[in-house]
Design brief:
86 residues; mainly alpha
């Protein structure tokens, strides 16, 4: 379900965004697909330990996936905002 919702949200961002970064499908769709997938696996890994902790971990992993994949991971972003300057 997260993959489907992420795909729809990414497709909407790709089609309607005035920001040039989101005119690239790698920047608009791929990170949003990964949010649901990584959050699910984080939740599934900790589900047996404690439900509250697993939900919190899934939330944090989803947020980090969104931020990291949009700003640092994609090779389409210039200049690289997360790279150290030498």
């Amino acid at each position: 379900m997260g993959l489907i919702l992420g795909g729809l949200f990414g497709l909407t961002s790709y089609l309607r965004s005035p920001i040039p970064l989101f005119k690239n499908p790698l920047a608009a769709i791929l990170p949003r697909l990964l949010i649901g997938v990584t959050a699910y696996f984080a939740y599934a890994a900790m589900k047996k330990a404690n439900r509250t902790v697993s939900l919190g971990l899934a939330t944090v992993v989803g947020l980090l996936t969104a931020g990291f994949s949009t700003r640092c991971w994609l090779p389409t972003v210039k200049p690289w905002p997360c790279r150290r300057r030498s």
